[in-house]
Amino acid sequence: MCQRATTLALALIAALLLVACGGSAAEPEPRTDGAAAQTAAPSAPASTGEAEPLLAAGERVVFIGDSLGLQAPPNYPDLLPGELGERAPGVETVNLSESGTTTADWAPGSPLFEERLGPELDDADVVAVTLGGNDLQETLGAGDGLDALAAGPDAAADALRGIERSGRRLGRIFDEIRSRAPSARVVYVGYPDYSEATAWRERGGTLAIAALSLGLSALVDAAADADPDLLIDMREPTARAGVDSLLADSEHLSVAGHELYARRLAAQLTR
Fold this sequence. Notes:
Layout: H1 3-20, H2 33-39, E1 60-65, H3 76-84, E2 92-95, H4 111-117, E3 126-130, H5 133-139, H6 153-180, E4 185-189, H7 198-203, H8 206-225, E5 230-232, H9 235-241, H10 243-246, H11 255-269
Parallel strand pairs: 1-2, 1-3, 3-4, 4-5
Helix pairs in contact: 1-6, 1-8, 3-11, 5-6, 6-8
């Protein structure tokens, strides 16, 4: 794991330990622009030449991941071709996402990879991956997302190892996609900034929310360390737009959330 991801994961463990030991449960102060900048994920390295957009007219985007890409419908994979418009006309999307899945469920050799993704790779130009949210939840011993805010010392001690495992699995997933589809581009699509959502802020105190924010940051850095062709970090755009309006419940996107995701993906894939 890269140094930044390790630092964030250690901070996550420290914050969770403080929560378990009776840390403050006061309402967190609204995050300032400066604080947001400190937790922003690193952008893709600048190119020294004129880079071609990752997505072109008539190409095919295959989505894999968990329930973030589902619900609604229409969900953001459904909406992407319309948002692309004349920037990349005729794009086709295939949404293979499966609710509740983790990086282990999509690892090479798994039924989802071999039987669902594998047959689609021959015709895939872009593979968009959204995984790791359920991994983080499981490492904290949570039955659902909000339960993660009550994680104790044992779960906190497992958090670093869990994030490291997720990053390694993402790396294997990306490598195997490229092995079987050498011309395909791999894109990691991140999660909303749940730490700004009312449902999460009301459930946890200042330190628990800080731990959630740091956990999301560590997950983004683990994904970046797995070396996708493009990482689309959705924390800042969703926080700026107002996370509550983008969520149908504590974890899943609303219609407005899917629309924002589709717009963001369209802009990033054709820049």
